């Protein structure tokens, strides 16, 4: 999946989960500090993305994530791995 399309899916789901409006998500935006996501928000987002794309996001990988760009990289790599295996 193209990165910008994935960014849009992420933005829409964040708005749905948090009730906040996100005009644009930049790679440098920090998940907790800039987007004000708490652990429940992150878990809800992860559950949605795993279900939506049929991927598995490991907790040890998620613990390392700081910003939107890293999150997009992780999800994009899992989708690419799944597609390559299919």
Q: SSE layout and pairings?
A:
Blueprint (H helix, E strand, L loop, with lengths): L2 H16 L20 H15 L5 H5 L4 H18 L1
Total strand segments:
0
Number of domains: 1
Task: Supply the helix-strand structural class.
Answer: mainly alpha
Number of helical segments with 4 or more residues: 4
Largest beta-sheet details: none
State Rg: 12 Å
- Could you name the CATH topology? Non-ribosomal Peptide Synthetase Peptidyl Carrier Protein, Chain A
Strand content: under 5%
SSE succession: HHHH
Q: Could you name the CATH class? A: Mainly Alpha
What is the share of helical residues? 55-70%
What's the rounded overall pLDDT mean? Answer: 94
Low-confidence stretches: none
Annotated CATH architecture: Orthogonal Bundle
N-end to C-end Cα span: 14 Å
Shape: globular
Tell me about this structure.
There is one protein chain. This protein is mainly alpha-helical and 86 residues long. The protein has a single domain (3-85), classed as Non-ribosomal Peptide Synthetase Peptidyl Carrier Protein, Chain A. The protein has four helices and no strands. It has helices spanning 3-18, 39-53, 59-63, 68-85. The chain is globular and about 35 Å long.
Defining key terms:
globular, 86 residues, mainly alpha
Summarize the structure.
By secondary structure, the chain is mainly α. The chain is built from four helices and no strands.
């Amino acid at each position: 999946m193209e990165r910008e399309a994935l960014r849009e899916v992420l933005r829409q789901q964040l708005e749905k989960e948090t009730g906040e409006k996100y005009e644009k998500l930049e790679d440098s935006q920090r998940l907790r500090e800039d987007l004000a996501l708490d652990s429940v928000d992150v878990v809800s987002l992860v559950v949605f993305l795993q279900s939506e794309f049929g991927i598995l996001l490991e907790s040890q990988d998620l613990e390392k994530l700081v910003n939107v760009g890293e999150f997009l990289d992780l999800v994009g790599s899992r989708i690419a791995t799944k597609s390559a295996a299919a």
